[in-house]
Write a structure and sequence with these properties.
Blueprint lengths: L1 H19 L6 H19 L5 H28 L14 H27 L3
Length: 122
């Protein structure tokens, strides 16, 4: 029962991420990404774990992290000067890229833990 509660919590987090993306400049891409990731724990809640869905979500997460790694690294170099939570700034795209990287990392973590819980039902 605790595993289903954890899975439901993970699904709700990822769905909330998807909803937050609706006001993003590229809402379709990120909303779909987070909804795909949310399917991993959501399917587990309903007793229908799907290994393929996990690998799709994990692959998309790693691709996104790879795509935004440079921006995240640049933000890390400026993190003492810049707040991560600020308005988008066209002269500082690395701030938005760092947020996208972090969101992808969180999605990968949540789907990874969800998959682990599915594989180890003890």
């Amino acid at each position: 029962m605790l595993r289903k509660i954890i899975q439901a919590f993970f699904a709700l987090i990822l769905v909330s991420f998807a909803i937050l993306q609706l006001n993003d400049p590229d809402p379709f891409l990120w909303t779909v990404f987070y909804l795909i990731c949310a399917l991993v724990p959501a399917l587990a809640v309903f007793g229908k774990p799907n290994r393929l869905m996990f690998w799709i979500a994990a692959t998309l997460s790693v691709i996104a992290m790879g795509f935004y790694f440079h921006g995240a690294y640049t933000y890390y170099q400026h993190s003492n000067e810049e707040a991560l939570m600020q308005s988008m700034n066209p002269t500082k795209p690395y701030i938005e890229e760092a947020r996208e990287f972090l969101g992808s990392l969180i999605a990968l973590f949540l789907t990874g833990v969800s998959y682990y819980l599915q594989k180890n039902p003890k």
